[in-house]
Structures are given as C-alpha cells and as structure tokens.
Design a protein that fits this description.
256 residues, alpha/beta, Nucleotidyltransferase, domain 5, 7-stranded mixed β-sheet, 12 strands, globular, T6A_TsaB, Gcp-like_dom, ATPase_NBD, tRNA threonylcarbamoyladenosine biosynthesis protein TsaB
C-alpha cells in the first residue's frame, strides 16, 4: 500500500518545477487591483489580451473569463505550458483569488507556475525613452507599494526591491539609489498617484507622471516577464502571494 503524503511533489512527480526551455504558450493573469486582465503569450510575444475594467469580484468573473478568452484564442487550456500571475503587491483579496485560481488550473494540468512583481509589470508600461521609473500603488493605511526601476536602451532593470512605505519616504528611497544625478526623466506611474500625487510632486523636484491610461497593470507584461524568468517557475503548491505588509486581520490580531 502506498504511504499517504502531504508533499505535492511526492504525490505528483509529473509536475515540472521549472521548464528547461522557454515555454511556447503562457497564460498570464492580473487581479492585483479593481481591474483585471488575462493574456496569452506565444513564443515570447503577447498574441491576445483581455482587460476587464472595474471587474468587481474577481472570484465571480475570473474563471468564466479565462474560459471565454481561451475559446476566442482557439486554444485548449491543456495546451498551456506555463501559468503566470502578478503575485503582488496589490489588493490582498485580489491577489489571493488570482493566485489560488492559477494554482488550481496548474495543479489539474500538472503545469508549473510563476509569480512576478506587479510593480515591475507596471514599470514596463513606460516605453520608447530612457527613464528612472517609480510605480506607486495605494496600499491603504497611509502607505504605498513602490520600487524604482531604470529603463536604458529598451532594457528595464530593477534598482530597489518592492516595499510598503509611507509616501513621504519615497524621496529617501530615491536618494538611496544614487541615481539622482542621472540625465534621464523621473517618471511616476500608477493609481497611487491619484491619492498621493500632489505630495510626491511637492517633495521630489523634477518628477513627472505617466498619463493615466498607463496606470493599470497588464497581464501581457506579466506574461512577458514570466517568459524571461521561466527558470524561476515553481510547482503550484509553492506559489504564494507577496503582500509586503501584514493583512488587516494580522494588524488587528497584533494590536490586541
């Protein structure tokens, strides 16, 4: 009789921890905010993308939308080689739903999964110019999720890790990068600007804001990041949301 185990890899040895070559087909999703998106990446390019503005409850629309999206792409879900999600930071509920949905699909098909930074995906919306880029999400409770990236000659590089900080601390993070003297524009991007934009402009000279139409995270960018980082793919049980700070429940529990 086979001994029962709670270890996923022992139960499902057919699960591949990481692809040995770039996956041909990647299904990517983002549920990190009130909007949502789904994308198909084939051979390193975004071939189809669906954006759901103000999607509402992600638990209600996501699975039916994935089914309809794949039908429109004339692709069976069994043909997907890798599943990718924006795993944070962002809305706690949205991230949980997106990651758990993706894990369920990958588990059923014995496919690997990968989570990528939503801030990095958002920074990818800036194209066509060298720039120092700072994505900003409203993290609630008077904080923002943010990081710095530099785009040079079409290549985006991370400068600082994703963090949750008070918006007044962004100027200190910028000073710590050592890039204040760079002769490239400083561009802020993201819906956190609708809350803290005036404060940022007042505190950081020379800051500019990306147009509002670029403030949403794109599942297409998540898929492209997944394609470039495919060696970091994991089994479904290993993929977890990255919150960057305690949840509301943890705040309440710790304050007792």
């Amino acid at each position: 009789m086979m001994e029962k185990t709670d270890n996923l890899e022992e139960q499902r040895p057919d699960l591949v921890k990481s692809p040995v070559k770039p996956p041909e087909k990647i299904l990517a999703i983002d549920t990190s905010s009130v909007a949502g998106s789904i994308a198909l990446i084939q051979d390193g390019s975004v071939t189809d993308e669906l954006t759901v503005g103000k999607a509402g409850r992600h638990s209600e629309w996501l699975l039916p939308a994935i089914e309809e999206f794949l039908k429109g792409c004339k692709l069976d879900i069994s043909e997907v080689d890798l599943f990718a999600a924006g795993n944070g930071p962002g809305s706690f509920t949205g991230l949980r739903i997106g990651v758990s949905t993706l894990k369920g699909l990958a588990w059923a098909l014995s496919r690997p999964v990968i989570g990528v930074s939503t801030l990095e995906a958002l920074a990818m919306n800036i194209k066509g110019q060298d720039a120092l880029i700072c994505p900003v999400f409203d993290a609630r409770k008077g904080q923002v999720y943010t990081a710095f990236f530099i785009l040079k000659h079409g290549c985006l590089e991370r400068v600082t890790p994703d963090v949750a900080v008070n918006p007044e601390e962004i100027s200190g993070l910028l000073a710590g990068t050592g890039l204040l003297g760079e002769s490239v524009p400083l561009i802020f991007i993201g819906h956190g600007l609708s809350v803290y934009g005036e404060l940022i402009k007042a505190e950081i000279d020379g800051s500019s804001f990306a147009e509002e139409g670029l403030w949403d995270v794109s599942a297409g960018n998540i898929g492209l990041l997944a394609s470039s980082k495919f060696g970091e793919a994991v089994t479904p049980v290993e993929l977890l949301p990255t919150y960057r700070r305690p949840s509301e429940a943890e705040f309440k529990r710790n304050s007792r």
